[in-house]
Amino acid sequence: MSRLAVLYGITNQELEDLKKQDEKDIYEYLLENIEEKYFDTSRACNLDKAWEGIQLCINGGKWSETSNVPDNIVFGGEILLNDGYIITLKNSNEIKKIITYLENYQIDDIIKSNFSKIDENEYSLEKDEDNLEFLLEWSQEILEFYKNALKENLNVVFSVEL
């Protein structure tokens, strides 16, 4: 399952423009109009291939994808596209809840305590000490990314090609 995934902070207008796209065009639109503009900026949080393991750890070693915290920190949220490509949305109210959760429960502690609970048969990467370090490394910017998105009054979209 693991492919490169990114969280992007986008304005209301950018979200409106994204939602106007036909389903078959939405992912390409995101790549051309959001990724190209924001990939190496504070408006993007690259999760590399770690997103899957982070998502599993956040949910106690199990896969869950709702619009509720903590499920929506990475993968979950309102589904904008689910057709080989995934795009999910988190609005400002959800972002506030995500920040509160991540301030109360340190992402490092969550990953360390739940990594061993991941079923190796349900996980596409190697489950070893190197992978644990990989997840810890790629999760470091998540809280600051969400804080920046809230400060700038942005929505957050998660995107990945499965």
Automatic annotation (TrEMBL):
<dbReference type="Pfam" id="PF08974">
    <property type="entry name" value="DUF1877"/>
</dbReference>
<protein>
    <submittedName>
        <fullName>YfbM family protein</fullName>
    </submittedName>
</protein>
<dbReference type="InterPro" id="IPR015068">
    <property type="entry name" value="DUF1877"/>
</dbReference>
<dbReference type="InterPro" id="IPR035944">
    <property type="entry name" value="YfbM-like_sf"/>
</dbReference>
